[in-house]
Write a structure and sequence with these properties.
Elements: H1 4-19, E1 27-39, H2 41-46, E2 51-61, E3 68-94, E4 97-124, E5 130-151, E6 165-190, E7 193-204, E8 206-209, H3 212-217, E9 220-222, E10 237-239, E11 244-247, E12 250-260
Length: 261
């Protein structure tokens, strides 16, 4: 894998030189599809859950005569979520006598997500209809966990009537370097339409992250008892959990469609 990337960049340099002598126009490609992140190696030891999401990619082929493209590959994946319903009670007193009690219902949603972004150098076999390709990739991954609190009361004590979101807090956001390679095939279904089947091998650096079992087991606690709209923010959310820490290598298979323009 380490020998693959230099070879791709040498190929890119030779392509740029050849393109200067070519009279054909370049082409752009836009792709979208279903993307999965499958933890392997050390990452798979700590995380048994596959992430699912959406992949986007943008490619430019400087010359139609030279089967080499440069581009950007993006992935947005979810890796577990949890919904928790909580009710906080506030007593109304006259002196020491409790004369009423108000209920404040909340919906608490916690989500794990992975954002992947890679620069890509692609070599495509110049074959009609079925176009196998190989990629060299280099970029980053971001592992994040976020909790959002929503006001479920009919009176909207802590939110606006058209927006029940009260506050959002981040429990984790860790960036790590990622590089590797990919292989795939473009199946031409029309002059400018392709089916794209691809699998990437992304070697990820060390990062902190939560897995699905972590956020399903934890309980969100309020460190204060809110009594008004401004009494609840991200500093009032307490979560007792310890993130995992490891390398983050993944297999990233995808199935999508690509448009040529």
């Amino acid at each position: 894998m380490k020998k693959l990337l230099p070879a791709f960049f040498i190929l890119l340099s030779s392509t740029t030189f050849a393109q200067s002598n070519s009279k054909s126009n370049g082409s752009g490609y836009f792709g979208i599809g279903i993307l999965a992140g499958v933890p392997i190696a050390e990452f798979g030891t700590y995380n048994e859950d596959m992430a699912i999401g959406v992949g986007l990619n943008f490619f430019y082929q400087p010359s139609d005569d030279i089967p080499v493209m440069v581009g950007l590959d993006l992935g947005f994946m979810g890796n577990g979520n949890n919904i928790q319903n909580e009710v906080i009670y506030a007593e109304i007193k006259v002196g020491e006598t409790v004369i009423d009690e108000i209920q404040f219902p909340f919906r608490i949603e916690t989500h794990n997500s992975i954002f992947a972004g890679h620069f890509v150098l692609r070599a495509v076999a110049p074959i009609k209809y079925f176009k196998p390709y190989v990629d060299g990739i280099v970029g980053f991954n971001n592992f994040s966990t976020n909790t959002s609190i929503y006001d479920e009361s009919e009176e909207h004590y802590f939110s606006e009537a058209d927006n029940p979101l009260i506050t959002t807090a981040s429990q984790n956001s860790d960036w790590t370097f990622s590089y590797g390679g990919a292989a795939g095939i473009l199946v031409q279904c029309g002059e400018s339409f392709f089916i794209d089947l691809r699998c990437a091998y992304a070697i990820g650096g060390e990062a902190d992250y939560y897995v699905e079992d972590d956020i399903e087991d934890w309980e969100v606690e309020f460190t204060t008892t809110p009594t008004g709209t401004d009494d609840l923010n991200e500093d009032d959310i307490a979560i007792s959990a310890i993130p995992k820490h490891s390398e983050t290598t993944m297999l990233m298979p995808s199935l999508g469609v690509t448009f040529k323009f």
